[in-house]
What we know:
Elements: H1 37-50, H2 52-82, H3 95-134, H4 140-147, H5 151-183, H6 187-191, H7 196-209, H8 213-219, H9 224-234, H10 239-272, H11 289-310, H12 313-329, H13 332-339
Amino acid sequence: MTTSGEQWPVGPWVPPGWASGPSAPKPGTVPLRPLHPSDIISGVFATAGRYRKPLYLPLLVLALVCSLLLGGCAWAALSELGRLPADGGQPADGQFTRAAWVVGIAFGLALVCATVAYAATAALSTTVLGHAVLGRSVTAREAWAQARPQLGRVLGTQLLTAAAALGILAVSALPSILLGVTLNSPAPALYGLFMLVPGLIGALYLGVRLVIAVPVAVMERQRPAAAIRRAWQLNHGAWWRSLGVTYAVRAVGSAVSQTITSVVAAVALRLVLSDALTTEQLDVSTLSAADLTLLIVAVGGAVVLTTTLSAPLRPLAVGLLYLDRRMTRENLAAGLAAAAGLPPELQHG
């Protein structure tokens, strides 16, 4: 990774076959040449393995904070809902309004927490990847210190991209809504649901085309709007490649997470619910509050842990897609080889 005030090195454009042979230098987790999909996938897991402390220690702390916040929000919301009459009676004056406010605030805080955690994961993963590609060591404290100033750019880029995708969906549904309002009939709006199909396709295309916007914002220190414009141009002609690589990495991470969670849940059920199991049915009434708490903590902890472990995989893949586009189109590989301190003869393949 370059130092705090620098951008990634840029070299003149050369044909995309530069250093594509086996002699391509590899100071870090990927060779410095245009990358094959297998290079990207293996580079993701190599980075996650070699840089697990700077990558996962800050994320585990973040996951713990978010879990405590979300747990508190859920407890407050459930406690307030529990005060409402359970027999269908009318709630006391202001009771329903207070419950609605508590639930709304809890949901809003949960949404904000998830959004910030997603942005922090992307910023930290991209920062660590910058060190991994150059083969440089970095501590968890250093990685977080370098990623933290990028949170604003990353969050703005993600929100702007999401707003653009939602705008496409809104435009695709707008004609049918206007027609329904004009004719005072819900039928056009129902038929207008079919118009969401091209809107969904357009939103998918936009999301994949702009998938490298966050690495642009972090590695090139670009503002959100500029990062989106740059990503749109840089990722031209690589839509299917971007879709395939990100889907493959996400599928692997999801499979591992589900496997671990299933195993933990099965063990917890076996240990905690053994006394409540009959021949064919589960008697939940025999469970104590301690048993239920242990079960919830075990399964919830497994979900948090596996989510944290798999969260950086997609940002790492997206970061490598960004590097691939620049090494293919702008000879970034030569600049990275020089930044890694390789001898001049290795900097040119």
